[in-house]
Design goal:
Elements lengths: L2 E7 L29 E2 L8 E7 L2 H8 L7 E8 L4 H9 L2 E2 L2 E2 L4 E5 L19 E8 L6 H8 L4 E9 L2 E2 L8 E5 L1
Parallel strand pairs: 3-9
Antiparallel strand pairs: 1-3, 1-11, 2-3, 4-8, 4-9, 5-6, 7-8, 9-10
């Protein structure tokens, strides 16, 4: 039976266990998870937060992270400005990025979610409004959500992954993890 770890990756943590090449120490998964034989199934950028899955099963890892399987990933994105219906429709239809068009996505505006405070906090500017959108994609290109929101004129200020396939963040606080059998 495969072991699956649901981890709430905090902001400013690398999605890897070591960072030997860096001249300055940076936080890694080993600062939070001390389980031999588990590896991340995909990645989550250092400046993004939320659900990261780790497993000890290579086939499960591939099924979760390989774009061929089109595993849905849902993000909450705090964006600059207030996207109108045209911007949301552009996200839904797929936008053209430097590495080609994205697959269609699910996108909608949401009320401010109940999330933990980010450290450091997102810079607040009185003259620039922001809002939250929920975006579900079925691929996982490098910094894809950030590039998509920027492409429609609304750069991402904070990004939190809530769900990957059937697994969700639930009530895990930043830095907490839970093991399940699959």
């Amino acid at each position: 039976m495969a072991r699956l770890i649901l981890f709430n990756k905090p902001y400013d943590v690398l999605s890897q266990f070591t960072d030997a090449r860096s001249p300055t120490p940076r936080a890694t998964l080993s600062d939070f998870i001390d389980l031999p034989g588990v590896y991340p199934a995909g990645r989550l950028d250092r400046d993004s937060e939320g659900l990261l899955l780790l497993t000890d099963d290579g086939r499960l890892q591939s099924r979760i992270s390989d774009p061929r399987f089109k595993t849905a990933k849902t993000y909450l994105a705090q964006v600059e400005g207030e996207p109108d219906e045209a911007a949301l429709e552009a996200l839904r239809g797929g936008v053209v990025l430097s590495d080609g068009p994205t697959r269609p996505a699910s996108a909608r505006r949401i009320e401010d979610p109940l999330l933990w405070p980010r450290n450091p906090p997102v810079r607040f500017r009185k003259t620039v409004v922001d809002c939250w959108i929920e975006l579900t994609i079925a691929e996982g290109r490098n910094r894809q959500v950030r590039r998509m929101t920027a492409a429609v004129g609304h750069p991402t200020l904070r990004l939190v992954r809530q769900r990957i396939g059937d697994w969700s963040l639930g009530d895990l606080a930043p830095g907490e993890w839970r093991a399940i059998s699959v």
